[in-house]
Amino acid sequence: MIIDRRRLLVGSASLGAATLLAAPPVLGQAKPRVVVIGGGPGGATAAKYIAKDSKGAIEVTLVEPAKQFVTCFHSNLYLGGFRDLASITHSYDKLAANYGVKLNHQTARAIDRDKKEVVLEDGSRLPYDRLVVSPGIDLKYDSVPGWGREHEETMPHAWKAGPQTALLRKRLEAVPDGGLVVMIAPPNPYRCPPGPYERISMMAHVLKSAGKTKAKIVVIDAKETFSKQALFQEGWNKHYPGMVEWMGPKIHEGLKSVDPRTNTVVTGFETFKDAALVNVIPAQTAGRIALDSGLANQTGFCPILPENMKSASDPNIYVLGDATIAGDMPKSGFSANSQAKVAAMAIRGELTDARVFPARYANTCWSLLAPDDTVKIGGSYEAKDGRIAAVETFVSKTGETAELRKETQAENMGWYAGIIADVFT
Amino acid sequence: MFVFIHRAVLASILAGGLAATPALAQTSKGDRELGQYLSSECVTCHQLSGKQSEGVPAIVGWPEDQFVAVMRAYKNRERENAVMRTIAGRLSQSDIEALAAYFGSLPKPAAP
């Protein structure tokens, strides 16, 4: 007890007068501790909002091995030449400086759910009262026959932003006129439903801008339909006629194998040889630590309580973002950010006497088809009948005016600046 | 003004151990604390600093009645923009007033 009091006093003194006013509800007890695993838009947002809104009453530690985060959102704009890599790379420093979030740049090796501790790569342990698990996705390296982790340099996935994204751009720039690009598009559920198709648009834009209009992009999709399909196909026909050929399973009759040595893709219907670039986007699961900790079910993703994002299998753990089964919400950075705010409020309600309001979720995904031609899809969501259900949704329409599409792109850019300010500053 | 009341409320919590902060709601027509929670949805796009960025306008420091009028126009589908119509669609009048109170209480950024 004496130690607990000392911890409280030391912690409060270092945070100044404002913190002394906002004293924790249970005086004499150590500060409640929250550990957040994963510094993407889910985890970083949760860490920030818990620390910011508890005004120092909750100790928040963010466990994330990377010192900087490269956003998957807008990494397609980097691929298309609309952004540089630095503009989608962000530091965690302000979360520490502005809100007192403790940064621990290690990999979380395991979760000891019985002891309520996170085991780090150096063997040390971080105790928690509540844990936020926001690990994003892991790639299923065994889901595409012939392709594995050892082939990600020759056939890049670029589905986790960073060096892979830079590699994909370099490889795209080397595609000759008349060259063949093959994309293997993933089965549901996966990170960023419109992402592969925005990427196709950006690939076509890069090729067209370089005068390589005889190059061709073939898409071998695991799905019969995809997000914003009519909008993308209209955009491809308008901006890149003859350059994009999309095939669902009924057309390609199944992906049989890829051969990274010869850049060959074999489907039930056709064999594509000597591709200049093969972009393999494999099937996905929740991040490893969620699987290892028993937070996922047989689908490979984590069931959550729709009213607050708490794990369905552990009352001390919240799971956010791409790793979750979030009902009607897509796996997106916007969704993860939205879910994180609901979880942060619920956690503050549990650990302090903060007011808790009914969960409200939202998402919008913008996709760039060509310069100043952007479409969007989104919705608002709430907990209903045991799941997160859409309240209202919207999607851009085919045939919209160029003026509206340009406005939508300006909104897209403004959103990026906004969410980065929200997550990282 | 707000800082003064805020401190007073906190002082009363420390003195009396009250859990709720009812006095906050009296600073404006809207429930500022509810507004702060609801605002977390807005600040995914609209920056809390009041900085405008490309197609996303600044929304801090507006007169409350103006904020309410604009949001009601989105809710009633009198203003365009699918994102704003969807966000406003599920906000009640008291939600909108709470947001107006919260964003209205924030300082506008200095002119660049």
Fraction of residues of chain A in helices?
25-40%
Oligomer: heterodimer
Largest interface: A-B, 41 and 34 residues
What is the CATH class name of one domain in chain B?
Answer: Mainly Alpha
CATH architecture of the largest domain in chain A: 3-Layer(bba) Sandwich
Sketch the major β-sheet of chain B: none
Give me the strand/helix succession of chain B: HHHHH
Most strands sheet of chain A? 5 strands, parallel
**If you average the pLDDT of chain A, what whole number results?**
94
Gap from first CA to last CA of chain A: 36 Å
CATH-level-2 architecture of one domain in chain B = Orthogonal Bundle
Question: What can you see in these coordinates?
Answer:
The complex is a heterodimer of chains A (425) and B (112). Chain A has 425 residues and is an alpha/beta fold. Chain A folds into two domains: 32-138 and 285-358, FAD/NAD(P)-binding domain (3-Layer(bba) Sandwich), CATH 3.50.50.60; 147-282, FAD/NAD(P)-binding domain. Chain A is 31% helix and 26% strand. Chain A has helices at 2-15, 17-21, 41-54, 75-79, 93-99, 163-173, 195-209, 229-239, 249-252, 288-292, 333-351, 402-424, and strands at 33-37, 59-63, 68-70, 89-91, 102-104, 108-112, 117-120, 125-127, 130-133, 137-139, 180-185, 216-221, 244-247, 255-259, 264-267, 271-272, 277-280, 284-286, 302-303, 317-319, 324-325, 361-370, 373-384, 387-395. A five-stranded parallel β-sheet of chain A has the order 5-2-1-9-20. The longest helix of chain A is centred in the C-terminal third of the chain and has 23 residues, at 402-424. Chain A starts with a helix and ends with a helix. The relative contact order of chain A is 0.14. With 112 residues, chain B is mainly alpha-helical. Chain B has a domain at 29-104: Cytochrome Bc1 Complex, Chain D, domain 2 (Orthogonal Bundle). Chain B is built from five helices and no strands. Chain B starts with a helix and ends in an 8-residue tail after the last helix. Residues 1-27 of chain B have low confidence and may be disordered. Chain A binds chain B through residues 21-23, 25, 49, 53, 334, 337-338, 341, 345, 353, 355, 357, 360, 362, 364, 376, 378-380, 382, 391-394, 396, 407-415, 417-419, 421-422, and chain B through 7, 10-11, 13-14, 19-20, 33-34, 36-38, 40-41, 43-49, 51-56, 82-83, 85-87, 89-90.
